[in-house]
Amino acid sequence: MIFAKELGDTLRGALDGDRRVVLLGEDIADPYGGAFKVTRGLSTAFPQRVRTTPISEGAIAGISAGLALAGYRPIAEVMFGDFLTLMFDQVVNHITKYQAMYAGQATCPVIVRAATGGHRGYGPTHSQSLEKHFLGVPHLRVVAASLYHDPRVVFADFLGRDEPVLYVEHKLLYPQHLTLPVHGMVGDLIATSDCSPGMLPTIRLSAVPAAECAVSVLAYGYPALLAAKVVERLAMQEEIFAELVVPAQIAPMDWAPVLSSAAATGSVVTVEEGADGWSWGSEAASVLSRRLFGKLRRPVDVVASAPTVIPSSKTKEAAVLVGGAQIEAAIRRAC
């Protein structure tokens, strides 16, 4: 199952199952089918409810908000997540506020899909992972796509609630095969799924039980795939054992699985592709240091991309963005 194809089929199922679902975005209609071809074929099947928009993320957000207030279930695609910045006012000051402002008499369940991340040589304004700027916005759920979470399950959860959601999809996940847990395994790694009430599942991957691991690695999205490769290789080649913890929902966080893993290993590394500083990893370090005060062997190690512009040159881009080498070095330090 290729992630982009499975995501497209998930959207098709949503459109087929609920006439209130509407898709909006730039160039999402056929024959183009979106920049990453996720929506290919959908406008042909549902011509009235899959609509290409002008190049205006602010307008996409505003139209989506109006549709949601009128009872529809809009799914808005942002071709490049860098331009979530143009939606920020609509999301923070309008979409996330209506339900609380009107004591539940109005809901605004907008789902925003955003293609994020680098490693493709797209340069400074088409390669960023800006989701950290949306973390902590009241009444906004931020969810990260991963190869370990079934998009059908994720979108069923989205459409079953009257809440706005930002769903970030790293571009490098689109051509990858989903690796969902099967019989408690993902490849050679033991896979467990933890889920607190009202939360999406958190997947935990390790070569040995968590109690035998030396470090917990907390990662989401594409960096989780990078981390999984490092965790598996270190376990098989050097018997350095780490547990990878992959949440789907990164805000608000389900801390229970993270705390469980961290308490078992006594050491934590966080990994994200966003720029270092004032980040998801920083928040995780803060929470873990408070809730597990005196129980961790060392400070939480936060691994992120360099806080600078992302170059177009692939060589220079690789020097800025987080990669497997940084993850491996952090795991070795943490053991």
Automatic annotation (TrEMBL):
One of the Pfam families matching this protein, by short name: Transket_pyr
Superkingdom, taxonomy of origin: Bacteria
Gene3D superfamilies, sorted: 3.40.50.920, 3.40.50.970
UniProt keyword terms in alphabetical order: Oxidoreductase, Pyruvate, Thiamine pyrophosphate
Species assigned in the record: Actinoplanes siamensis
Protein known as: Pyruvate dehydrogenase
Alphabetized InterPro entries for the sequence: THDP-binding, Transketo_C/PFOR_II, Transketolase-like_Pyr-bd, Transketolase_C
Domain Transketolase-like pyrimidine-binding: 1-176
